[in-house]
Amino acid sequence: MSKIMPPAHPFDTSYLRDADDGDKLKEECGVFGVVGVADASNFVALGLHALQHRGQEAGGIVSYDPTDGFQSARRFGYVRDNFTSQKIMETLPGELAIGHVRYSTSGNKGPTAIRDVQPFFGEFAMGGAAIAHNGNITNANALRRELIERGSIFQSSSDSECIIHLMARSLQRNIPERMEDALRRVEGAFSVVAMTRTKLIGVRDPLGVRPLVLGKVGDGWALSSETCALDIIGADFVREIEPGEMVVITDKGVESHFPFRRLEPRFCIFEHVYFSRPDSILGGRSVYETREAIGRELAKESPVEADLVCPVPDSGTPAAIGFSLQSGIPYAMGIIRNQYMGRTFIEPTEQIRNMGVRLKLNVNRALIKGKRVILVDDSVVRGTTSRKIKEMILDAGAKEVHFRIASPPTAWPCFYGVDTPQREKLLAATMSEEEMRDHLQVDSLKFISIDGLYRAVGETEGRNDECPQYCDACFTGDYPVRPADQIDKGFEMKPAAE
Amino acid sequence: MSKIMPPAHPFDTSYLRDADDGDKLKEECGVFGVVGVADASNFVALGLHALQHRGQEAGGIVSYDPTDGFQSARRFGYVRDNFTSQKIMETLPGELAIGHVRYSTSGNKGPTAIRDVQPFFGEFAMGGAAIAHNGNITNANALRRELIERGSIFQSSSDSECIIHLMARSLQRNIPERMEDALRRVEGAFSVVAMTRTKLIGVRDPLGVRPLVLGKVGDGWALSSETCALDIIGADFVREIEPGEMVVITDKGVESHFPFRRLEPRFCIFEHVYFSRPDSILGGRSVYETREAIGRELAKESPVEADLVCPVPDSGTPAAIGFSLQSGIPYAMGIIRNQYMGRTFIEPTEQIRNMGVRLKLNVNRALIKGKRVILVDDSVVRGTTSRKIKEMILDAGAKEVHFRIASPPTAWPCFYGVDTPQREKLLAATMSEEEMRDHLQVDSLKFISIDGLYRAVGETEGRNDECPQYCDACFTGDYPVRPADQIDKGFEMKPAAE
Amino acid sequence: MSKIMPPAHPFDTSYLRDADDGDKLKEECGVFGVVGVADASNFVALGLHALQHRGQEAGGIVSYDPTDGFQSARRFGYVRDNFTSQKIMETLPGELAIGHVRYSTSGNKGPTAIRDVQPFFGEFAMGGAAIAHNGNITNANALRRELIERGSIFQSSSDSECIIHLMARSLQRNIPERMEDALRRVEGAFSVVAMTRTKLIGVRDPLGVRPLVLGKVGDGWALSSETCALDIIGADFVREIEPGEMVVITDKGVESHFPFRRLEPRFCIFEHVYFSRPDSILGGRSVYETREAIGRELAKESPVEADLVCPVPDSGTPAAIGFSLQSGIPYAMGIIRNQYMGRTFIEPTEQIRNMGVRLKLNVNRALIKGKRVILVDDSVVRGTTSRKIKEMILDAGAKEVHFRIASPPTAWPCFYGVDTPQREKLLAATMSEEEMRDHLQVDSLKFISIDGLYRAVGETEGRNDECPQYCDACFTGDYPVRPADQIDKGFEMKPAAE
Amino acid sequence: MSKIMPPAHPFDTSYLRDADDGDKLKEECGVFGVVGVADASNFVALGLHALQHRGQEAGGIVSYDPTDGFQSARRFGYVRDNFTSQKIMETLPGELAIGHVRYSTSGNKGPTAIRDVQPFFGEFAMGGAAIAHNGNITNANALRRELIERGSIFQSSSDSECIIHLMARSLQRNIPERMEDALRRVEGAFSVVAMTRTKLIGVRDPLGVRPLVLGKVGDGWALSSETCALDIIGADFVREIEPGEMVVITDKGVESHFPFRRLEPRFCIFEHVYFSRPDSILGGRSVYETREAIGRELAKESPVEADLVCPVPDSGTPAAIGFSLQSGIPYAMGIIRNQYMGRTFIEPTEQIRNMGVRLKLNVNRALIKGKRVILVDDSVVRGTTSRKIKEMILDAGAKEVHFRIASPPTAWPCFYGVDTPQREKLLAATMSEEEMRDHLQVDSLKFISIDGLYRAVGETEGRNDECPQYCDACFTGDYPVRPADQIDKGFEMKPAAE
């Protein structure tokens, strides 16, 4: 069952943003495409599986074969559960395919909400094209309204659908030029993988907010959100697609264009902290190493005497290892993660407190008892989970609990393709570090500084406040693209003077 | 899995027409709508259940409620299996709802082919609208090509989607006028039920090829393909919507318009013979009575001495009763239909011949043995089933087998919303009545005459060849609307001189 | 979810009997077996499909193949939905197979209730055996209690499981003798089809209450509840298994034994009236002809002036035809049955009365209006449906309604394998024919007399009250086997003096 | 579809043991029970979720409530997917419940194989009982044969079913005594949790091979395979059930019995190495700490110069941390585990080698390149995975690869409740340590010594060869209980002289 249209605000798709009540920021998408190899869709399935951490709600694959034309399969659930059967994969023949995984942004999972699952397809006078989009269009509401007034009919509630309608109305005579035309009207963050009957196309927005990399697999080519998905298909990592670059790949090779006005790049720094997989390579070194370096910086900035350094599993692990290596305090698994997490159980009685977190995590009681424990986590969003973990650790008899956080305080929502709570629900939006420590009732709480984070990603001078090297809006409120739709809906930007 | 686009013929949707290998013509759709009653979607579910014989592949319902807006559920399978759960029906609130059942025109039943299931919905600048269409648009390919060239993106492979795109591009300022605008561009047969946030709309094409009736239910109103669906919801039958009429129904009442150029009506005569349910009322009397009258005409035109008159169940039953009553030959159930038919069983060995038909039908052996049997069937399409039935009857020891057919020879395909085999597969397109008798190897084979059929439907003078009272193109090749798309694809009309 | 054990009455399985609130008696089972043909399980699937009217809840097949041993598949739902896939049927190899269909006797359909689905299998010291049972064991509770006290563990709540436990404890050295041993302890009605690794076995209880027939298919043999299932597999009907007979069939042929004390046969007369399919042969003529004869008897016994004779579809059809042929009053389909019945729809509002029956049946309003109508039905159980049908007919404008019933008043429950309401819920248990007429508010109501029924089944002298030719306990209260378990639970037999 | 009986060897259930082709030993079961708390089944669901690592194929819960009696639900799949819906849990009311999770020992997952899922239930003359068994009965074939000869009918192919049949035939007058009676006939390893209408019962075999612990939850009690499942329900860990002890728990408290002949305990040492969860407490300290200690011992016994210590995730992690802490070589995540593993993907082309392992694991290429790497794994079973991991590491450019294994060579199968390959498939059964190094082609390969392992679990003197403190048969071939069924089938024990 899908709500075709919310009644009061005909162009408002904000309802898609409010469903998450978890306590992590969530990347919304991963994209992958391959050309020039037999059974391309099987490569795409593998690539999407390796990108599953970027979107777990649903996935889709479109393939093209001269005999069967464009074919599509879109499903809710994990890639492993949908794109592993012979029966499905046989329906996706050809040497050219693209795919998409997306994060669940709403509770609607009924059969017709499948129309929000990408890739999107459009039939144009010169043939069909499919696109998969990672990012977020910040002027989508205005574009949608304009397109509807001209007679376009939207199939989905997804912002990304604007791109295909803009392409349909472009006056250009071939699909790559129509895509340039469309993307010039789009504001925000986008890494797009697209395909026609003969071409695999990749584009990154001028700021390069979201990642996109190029790989070589046999005689063919692959485009992927991250390098870890090149590894799974045995592809060699060639290079990152540059901010503002469009690559058009055919069996003759890779053509590169720069259709947009050039801007200074602002890659998302949170990809280093949390979103990307630790075995992916960003900027020439493994994300794991960067996270370990964050832990080392944190140990330098905010040392504390303790018996054990424990990660909040699994995302805090590399930083905790770095903190231990820098500080010399032994690393230990003080919290064990249940790998069979899933749906919510029915709470039997009031005897069970904090059951939600118990389903996922259990304290290694015999180890923790009587110890001074440093807990390393990647970020604090609402603070709800941090508080529960602290209680579990104290219940188990820890003598002291010190939180060390591998990112600066998250004080502003992301409008570039990450699912963030509204600003007022971000703990750091309303509290200072000290107030947060009181709120969480821990012995100490320290976040890495913004300059410490920049140093850990390799900027030895720290952040360049005149011209920041990364998009760090979630920490600083410094938004490189004006979030027009959000401002229309009442979002207040940080005053310029601040 | 749905084929997004066949590769070679980008605007050709003819592949949708070739899948049926059954031996009956099949109505493609039933439509139903209701306004002004609480829980309108539950009424629609009941109405569609009563219209299930018009389309068994899939069904959909759209409802509107001021709080929840437009809501939609579309499912493959029977209405009874999909629209009976509290869980689904609760998602379709409101006092205004429309629905659609459709016949399976292709083997594609994967999750994305659900996009071909109606009602279709479009969001326009002045609000949303949903439409459900029974019939066939004979210039759909040309319209689709034109719309794509202007930048429309089609969601489905259904001809009916053209209507909503034409509406999206209309310059008119309200939805009923946009619908008039759109339908004036459409050629072919259509009975449409549509809805906006406040209006239930019904339209019949100027020839009135497909049925559409108006009913009163409590303080509200209903539109339905047939009266039998009014009965199931306890509605009173008010009148038929007239050919070329548009009704716009609100809580203030029923407004009637005639937006099209007036033409002499040509209602489908096959609705009387086979498509409509025997308990529906067409032209003031029950379809059952008309069919009984056909049997009486047949007994007068083609009498034969025999021991028993047996129907080919279930569609031949009323005509067989009429034949028996007219001839005085006892009526009997010589063939028993298994009411648990379904998927195809695996044939164990070659010992079983004609298993397909045995799954559905069994001869009442002890009754038939040694008898001269008249079998009454509604029509002969390919002749494959007729031949198998004849063999079963002879195997069971019948002394003679005489076929009497309650329609004239089906020699031409229907292009107005009925799933017909290509012309060369119609037995009567290539054989005379006598050749068909030889082919089927029966003792006699007689079809009702075209005039006999007209007499049975109440035209006492028979067919008016100058200005025929019905569409009987499937028997005569006299097509009241030029089938433009088919002619583009090579279909040859009957020479005018003939 | 299955209730393993009701708490208060540890040996009472009566809860299985009370779930039906329909208004028809329901046969509980059909059995089928085949030996000596390749892919025996495919034949069994077809046979069970033809016997589906005897049990629609669930079905099971056991096969034996020297390589794969005994294999089993048991499923809820129709045969056509479960035993038609290559994937399932390949798991049931071999030349020997048996199967069972059962009626839903309880609402429990969860995964573990599948253990109540037959055939049952037991591994004995000398090898395995599977059995499928049609009928009912009247001393099952006592047997079950005895077996549990000796250490048997029951897998199901089915009475039929007693047979396999009795076999497991028999001192005999081969399986057919163990089966004789077991069945000698069993009271009630049983037609059993069983198999070992090499033998197909069929047994009928000494009274022969339930049917069982032998057929020849190629070089092999088949056992079936009814002949219609022989037809579907192309088998020739050889003969009925005699009351009290056991046949043991191997590739050497058919051996016949009579292991029980001989009794006068008492075949169930209701098989003629309602349970068996009209195309099956019982006592040398088709069940259809017997039912037509019942209609003729009824017309002789209880004539009435009217315009139309209409069946209550579908079970009243043959008797209505007979009534029409005898009386000369035209036969017509005044009530149309919706062939897409299914789950219960949600009632939209109180405007819809009698929706339950409307889902299945609709009056042919235009035909019925102003007419005097004779409605012929097979039986009246609770009378609830009869009442609703009468109302629908009157709503449609009928001038008079006369009910004619093709069986005597059903005043006593069946304890021999038929699902009957408790006695106090049977309309005829508490009312005279005249009271029933008042209750139903019809112009007349007449049941066939018990002697009329006997004449129609060929007993020209009517019922022999000294030694009745049939089991007619449901009409007369004359139970040929004492229903011991029921009497333990408080059932009161008809006083002997009556 | 389940194979009811393998044809040639009627009492041989060995086919259940051969299906695993993975490269880990797998615990076969976890048991949990609770009494004296409202909604007991919800506690059991949580406990089973925490024990999911002990068995992932299927799970079952039985509950008892005075109103509803015994109720049962058994399902394939994870606890989180089955026992979290209100609908299921409402069918399991009461204050007393037990549950079981089991490992997949065969590929049969069809509907009837559900009968192999525990708890098993039996109805006895004095009432019902349900049992859940962790372990393995080494004389099950002989018992099964004996029981079948006496007339028991087995429902499943599970060894554990013998216990309930032995109980059914016991002459004792109450259920706990019947259970003692039954378990005295049983040889092998068993930790049993059982229930009657009023009692929760726990038993451990005289050697105490499998774990079983007692917890206090509110006013009630819990029994669990491991303490981590007490944590999840907020229960306090009271004590381990002792080897040979039976506890009978009612609302009056815990009664303790020792019904078996006393033996020296032989707890499974592999529970410390791999099976139990790291946050469980065994012998007074966390399993995590024992594993870290194993890593320290290994670093002392087999040091090597290297740049990084990396675990093979996830089971090698604690020992790798211990190795790093002891050796001073930095710990790092050189191999990243994909947490979305699942079904097998279709291999697109031959370009992808080792895809199986790539689905689960990816090398952190940028980190590993040019480094000397120590890989710490928990065990080597067949060696297939170790070999693939080595290749991935070398492909990524590692300079040296050193394997350190946290257990001695696994050279003998386990017959006490663990799924082990046949002896000839164990790498260590046919190769020396040096041959294994050559086979795996790594720079060095060292296993911990048997005495080193005993020291790590707290036996400072190492193994007492006269009277070993643990069952270590998988390493030493010293089987504390004669595996009678296996010897019957040809298994050869280690010669006593060795």
From TrEMBL, chains A, B, C, D:
UniProt pathway: Purine metabolism; IMP biosynthesis via de novo pathway; N(1)-(5-phospho-D-ribosyl)glycinamide from 5-phospho-alpha-D-ribose 1-diphosphate: step 1/2
EC numbers, comma separated: 2.4.2.14
Keywords of this entry: 4Fe-4S, Glutamine amidotransferase, Glycosyltransferase, Iron, Iron-sulfur, Magnesium, Metal-binding, Purine biosynthesis, Transferase
Cofactor(s) listed in the protein's UniProt record: Mg(2+); [4Fe-4S] cluster
A Gene Ontology biological process term: purine nucleobase biosynthetic process
Record field: transmembrane: none
Pfam families reported for this sequence: GATase_7
Active site feature: C29
Note on cofactor: Binds 1 Mg(2+) ion per subunit. Binds 1 [4Fe-4S] cluster per subunit.
Sample GO molecular function, one term: amidophosphoribosyltransferase activity
Residues the entry annotates as binding [4Fe-4S] cluster: C268, C414, C471, C474
Binding site for Mg(2+): S315, D377, D378
Domain Glutamine amidotransferase type-2, first and last residues per copy: 29-252
Family (UniProt): In the C-terminal section; belongs to the purine/pyrimidine phosphoribosyltransferase family.
UniProt-listed NCBIfam families: purF
Biological function: Catalyzes the formation of phosphoribosylamine from phosphoribosylpyrophosphate (PRPP) and glutamine.
Protein name: Amidophosphoribosyltransferase
Native source species: Sulfitobacter marinus
Name of encoding gene: purF
